[in-house]
Design goal:
Strand order of the largest sheet: 1-28-27-26
Shape: elongated
Strand content: 25-35%
Largest sheet: 4 strands, antiparallel
Structural class: alpha+beta
CATH topology of the largest domain: Methylamine Dehydrogenase, Chain H
Number of strands: 28
Number of helices: 14
Number of domains: 2
Length: 544
């Protein structure tokens, strides 16, 4: 089953970007906040300002406004763009040279600082220098089997390390001192500080497009053999199961909890939580897929598009509506890192409660019970499904939005009396378990009164046990129910527990009257005899 996790919307129309230049193609993109930069095949940089307009159902529309256009003076394509927002600089890779330009004016820095001899670059998002006025950049050098590490400042660059590799590197990502490299025949992790290398797994750079992407602290995503998206830590191990891609994936992005992959025809969306494919979006002629601080951008050679994630809470509710409970729970639990703690706790409890009612409706009572307790369900939500079990004096109103779609037990079971009986038996068991726990705190009257009604209706042996021990059964509701079901002995116990001994004698007398022994009790109801003595007399007569 598919999940709608993303909506594909246009960000920059081809006409706005290229005009009538049919031979000019998009080569790379960079996004920093509202600023979108596009590098093109004619050696130009285009700067747009993106404005987002939220739409119903959680999606959005984007309007791009052109800010600047700058030709770098080269006849070669702009192959990579990286924003260093702390420095207000844009790193531009063109013709094997990395130029520093101002993020707004797109003018090169006056010093003319640049890094020469670069084939590819990666920013270190987990820098080791601790200097807030520089960024760390790793490049694949035009020198054979060489990577270099630079410190980049506002108007100067400084090389800090040059490292040889076992084979020619094709792609690189960096985290701290660790480089993750796609070589000609394998992926490796290389600590450029110590020089220690760790082999990961084989790879054929001549047959497949390499993918090396940092996805978090000390963790990378790689395009592995057999069409697998493989996760690897800097220790050379995998802490997540792989995701199954097609053999010809050309790009990947992360928007937690999802991994997105681009091939010749589709964008696929997999969950990092359970590794299942959740969505497939048709997309032809795409050649760029990247994520920028939670924003996922995909591009063809002519247009730029944004994959707008639907709010996680809406995705969870859609899964629950489809009764895909386990997927909803996995997604809800994984949303912890995306939602503030207090908001998450409220959301997660509600999801557990909703999931509990789905299991309940399917008569999966063990699962329902665990979810109700884990979700700290207000027990009155459950009792209210059963007609007449809540006390008439109760002011309880159900949660809004509702936790389920059922008016009452009759609708849920569609009148199937066997199912009704099973549901009542479950509630009887559940209330008996929770009545002495914190679940019933503040609701003891509702719990005990409902339990009394269930016991009486089922002619259950525990009815008398409930009434001779401490309980919170509401007298008026309980008395009427016991009388309705002709539980006179229990009614007498109820009155006695509530200190109404005179009233307690009459139900027991009625009980004995029903047995035909009415003579000795003709005046018992109005006698002044003490309750214990009168009650014992009734019991002895009943025994006769």
């Amino acid at each position: 089953m598919s999940t709608k996790a993303f909506t594909l919307v246009s960000a920059v129309e081809p006409e706005l970007l290229m005009g009538d230049k049919e031979r000019v193609n998009i080569e790379c993109v960079e996004c920093c906040g509202k600023n979108l930069y596009v590098g093109t095949s004619d050696g130009s940089i285009h700067h747009f300002l993106l404005e987002e307009q939220p739409l119903p159902a959680g999606t959005a529309a984007f309007t791009a406004t052109r800010q600047r256009h700058r030709h770098l003076g080269f006849r070669k394509p702009v192959t990579e763009l990286r924003a260093a927002s702390a420095l207000h600089r844009l790193l531009v890779l063109c013709d094997c040279s990395i130029t520093l330009v101002h993020m707004r004016s797109l003018e090169p820095v006056p010093s003319g600082a640049r890094i020469k001899g670069a084939v590819a670059l990666a920013l270190n998002e987990n820098p080791v220098s601790g200097d807030p006025f520089c960024v760390e950049v790793c490049i694949i050098s035009v020198k054979r089997r060489t990577v270099q590490v630079f410190m980049v400042y506002e108007d100067r660059v400084q090389i800090v390390r040059e490292v040889s590799t076992p084979e020619q590197p094709l792609a690189v990502a960096v985290d701290g001192y660790f480089l993750c490299l796609a070589l000609t025949t394998q992926y490796i992790i290389l600590n450029y500080h110590t020089g220690v290398a760790q082999d990961l797994f084989p790879y054929c750079g001549e047959e497949k497009h390499p993918i090396v992407k940092r996805i978090g602290r000390q963790e990378f995503l790689l395009a592995g053999p057999g069409g697998l998206g493989m996760f690897a830590t800097v220790a050379g191990i995998s802490q997540r199961a792989p995701v199954h891609w097609s053999e010809n994936v050309i790009g990947a992005a992360i928007c937690f909890p999802y991994v997105l992959a681009l091939d010749d025809e589709f964008i696929t969306v997999h969950s990092m939580l359970d590794q299942q494919q959740k969505q497939t979006l048709p997309f032809k002629e795409g050649h760029i897929l990247q994520d920028f601080e939670g924003r996922v951008i995909v591009a063809t050679s002519k247009g730029v598009y944004i994959l707008v994630p639907l709010p996680l809470e809406k995705q969870i509710q859609d899964l629950l509506s489809s009764h895909r409970v386990e997927e909803a729970l996995v997604l809800a639990k994984g949303a912890r890192r995306n939602i503030p703690k207090e908001k998450f706790q409220v959301m997660y409890r509600r999801v557990l409660q909703q999931a509990g009612f789905i299991h309940f409706a399917q008569l999966q009572f063990l699962e329902a019970k665990e979810l109700f307790r884990s979700g700290q369900l207000d027990v009155r939500e459950l009792i209210s499904l059963y007609p007449f079990l809540l006390p008439t004096s109760s002011s309880f109103t159900r949660s809004h939005p509702p936790l389920h779609e059922y008016a009452d037990l009759n609708q849920l079971t569609q009148g199937d009396q066997e199912k009704v009986a099973k549901c009542k038996h479950f509630l009887m068991s559940y209330l008996n378990e929770v009545r002495s726990t914190e679940v019933a705190n503040g609701y003891k009257e509702e719990v005990d009164t409902a339990l009394l009604k269930l016991y009486a209706e089922a002619d259950h042996d525990s009815l008398l046990d409930l009434l001779v021990t401490e309980n919170a059964c509401l007298l008026t509701d309980s008395a009427a129910w016991l009388e309705k079901h002709k539980k006179y002995f229990a009614l007498g116990l109820l009155y006695h527990y509530n200190g109404q001994d005179a009233a307690a004698v009459q139900p027991v007398a009625d009980l004995i009257s029903c047995s035909g022994e009415t003579g000795p009790l003709r005046s018992l109801a109005s006698t002044r005899i003490a309750w214990p003595q009168a009650f014992r007399m009734c019991c002895r007569l009943f025994a006769l």
